[in-house]
Amino acid sequence: MNTHTDSLTDATAMHPTRYTRTAMTLHWLIAPLMIGNVVLGLSADSLPDDWVRPVIDTHKSIGITVLGLALLRILWRVSHKPPPLPREFASWEKIAAHAAHFVLYLLMIALPLSGWLHDSAWKDAATHPMRLFNLFAWPRIGYVMNLDPTLKESLHDRFGALHTWLGYALYALLAMHIGGALKHQWLDRKSVLERMVP
């Protein structure tokens, strides 16, 4: 029996070099949905009037989908240890990477949730039901919908502003996340991309 091969197999089992297939699938489902939703959100104001409502409805549907997938990803992450970063990384790089991932998970929850609250506080929410990808009705947050109209209008504006600022934070973090991965891949020659590809 080859003891060297066995020890390598044991080490890989204890300290995997790649994310699990489920983690990869969730990552590559969420990433394009989030980027696509950024494009939809930024382009809505410049579209013809008859396009605005379908685009906004699609934006909402994608947001709810991302929220569900992000919750699944967090549950999976809690129960499955991710692969360690390359040993060559400086301590500050590892700390920055972990902090960025934490904030990214936070935004994956907070951004769609703030949008859902914003939509639930819309004054016309009761007469304009939300449909998830136009397939079936999706509920608003009942507590918010049933608030006093004056308070609800104020909350609509506040949740809208929060959603916008969280969106800006996401744009910046996605740019750093993608830029950092490409830097490590092409400049440092210390690939982190291969941890997240089959």
Automatic annotation (TrEMBL):
Record's subcellular location: Cell membrane
Membrane topology qualifier: Multi-pass membrane protein
Pfam families named in the record: Ni_hydr_CYTB
Membrane-spanning residues: 24-42, 99-117, 165-182
GO BP, one annotated term: respiratory electron transport chain
GO MF entries: electron transfer activity; heme binding; metal ion binding
Keywords: Cell membrane, Electron transport, Heme, Iron, Membrane, Metal-binding, Transmembrane, Transmembrane helix, Transport
Names of the cofactor(s): heme b
Gene Ontology cellular component annotations, sorted alphabetically: plasma membrane
Entry-linked SUPFAM superfamilies: Transmembrane di-heme cytochromes (SSF81342)
Domain Cytochrome b561 bacterial/Ni-hydrogenase intervals: 18-198
Family per record: Belongs to the cytochrome b561 family.
Name recorded for this polypeptide: Putative cytochrome b-561 protein
Organism: Paraburkholderia ribeironis
The organism's taxonomic lineage, starting at the top: Bacteria, Pseudomonadati, Pseudomonadota, Betaproteobacteria, Burkholderiales
